[in-house]
Amino acid sequence: MFNQLKEDINIVFDRDPAARNKFEIITTYPGFHAILLHRLNHWLWNANLKFISRFLAYFSRWLTGIEIHPGAVIGKRFFIDHGMGVVVGETAIIGDDCTLYHGVTLGGTSWQKGKRHPTLGNGVVVGAGAKVLGPIVIGDNARIGSNAVVIRTVPEETTVIGIPGRVANTETTKPSPEQEAMAKKIGFDAYGASQEMPDPVAVAINRMLEHIHSMDKEMERMCHEIKSLGGGMDEMSVEEMKSQPIDDGTGNTCRENMAKGD
Question: Taking the domains of the chain in order of start, what are their residue ranges?
Answer without folding.
Answer: 2-168, 169-234
